Amino acid sequence: MATSGTVGQTVFETRKVIDHAARRCKIPPQAMGSEHLDTALDLLFLNLSSLASYGIPLWVIEKTILPIYRGERSVPLPVGSVDVMEMNIRDLNRTLGTNTASEGVADNAFDGNLLSACIQVAPAGFIQVQFTTGGPVQADNYGIFFNATATWDITIQGSQDGITFTDLYVNAELAAVAGDWFWIDLEQQIPWAFIRLQANGTTVLDVAEFFVGNTANEIPMPKINLDSYSNLPDKTFLSRPTEFWYDKSAAAQGGRQIATVWPPPDTQFTFFQYVLYIKRQIQDVGTMVQEIEVPQRWYEFVICDLARKLVREIPEADISRLTILDNDFLIEAKNVWTGEDDGSPVMLTPRIGVYTR
């Protein structure tokens, strides 16, 4: 039997989603003018936006690393965040060695002091550390504390001999903001004898800290509700954050949602990070020739959902098909949501205790 021999290579554009939905409504092709196409795009956007409220679409759960700043109680979440599934506070082991730079005081980028910096004036410079004790080191975690505001083109590189370097991470449009941290994790790293922060093109490095670390230690932070947070007696004393309240109120005014931690972090936790697993919104619909951000198995559901909305709003649609389209939607909704799990076992932990007064 001859088959294609490929998987996941079929491109199903937004135009095809709308075309199929319109056919199910019995809308004549000539009736789908620009106004009706705009209506279909709007409905598609609304349908996808509401998916995150139905359940947990697994493909929109993302790991996010957020910096810690002394005394910051309200932690802004990435744009489009819908919920915080898990939040941990993480400590890293800082790997140390011999520090060099193309110019500036290299040691200032590794001294743990945010007030000193390795300042360069020439573009395309570098800051690097050589691990001279114990041989090559596997470094999985990197942080940059900026001392200047600009758009940087940088590369993090590894080398065994200090001559030939391998690119580990490249960012040509890194938004550097003075006084802000930038953290990344790199997986499946091999041990390197040298780690270098390399500026590319016209980028001029001005770095207060270049953190190279490993051996991450994460401590879970439980989520509490508004009642529990409001009943905390002292919300301003500084220590290690142990729990958080997820505040959605800012999103109603068009702002970013907030994770309010307690207690706010003290100075000694400046080099820690928050590691979050966030459920976010599905990406915007885009143009007719782009694809929507759903897995292949969800396309039939999306078409059914769009069709039952179009039949209600497009005058040329056959309203007699409303019941059929609603039933189709219910069948597909059951199918996709039933299969939307990661296959891991369900663990039930009963907490039964003796009642006392």
In total, the number of strands is: 16
Distinct helical segment count: 5
Examine the coordinates and then state which fold CATH places here, giving the name of the CATH topology of the largest domain: Jelly Rolls
CATH superfamily of the largest domain: Galactose-binding domain-like
State the distance separating the first and last CA atoms. 73 Å
Given helix and strand content, the structural type is: alpha+beta
Largest sheet, if any?
7 strands, antiparallel
Low-pLDDT stretches: none
Nearest-integer average pLDDT: 93
Rg measurement, Å: 26 Å
CATH architecture of the largest domain: Sandwich
Strand content: 25-35%
Structurally, the number of domains stands at 3
Q: Can you give the helix content as a percent range?
A: 10-25%
The shape, in one word, is globular
CATH class of the largest domain: Mainly Beta
Order of helices and strands: HHEEEEEEEEEEEEEHEEEHH
Question: Please, could you describe this protein's structure?
Answer:
- By secondary structure, the chain is of the alpha+beta class.
- The chain has three domains: 14-56 and 282-327, no CATH class; 61-89 and 220-276, no CATH class; 93-218, Jelly Rolls (Sandwich), CATH 2.60.120.
- The chain contains five helices and 16 strands.
- The chain has helices spanning 14-24, 34-54, 226-230, 299-313, 322-338; strands at residues 61-67, 74-76, 81-94, 98-101, 118-119, 126-130, 141-146, 150-159, 165-176, 181-185, 194-199, 206-220, 223-224, 243-247, 258-262, 273-280.
- β8 and β9 (165-176) form a beta hairpin.
- The chain is globular.
- It starts with 13 loop residues before the first helix and ends in a 19-residue tail after the last helix.
- The model has no long low-confidence stretch (mean pLDDT 93).
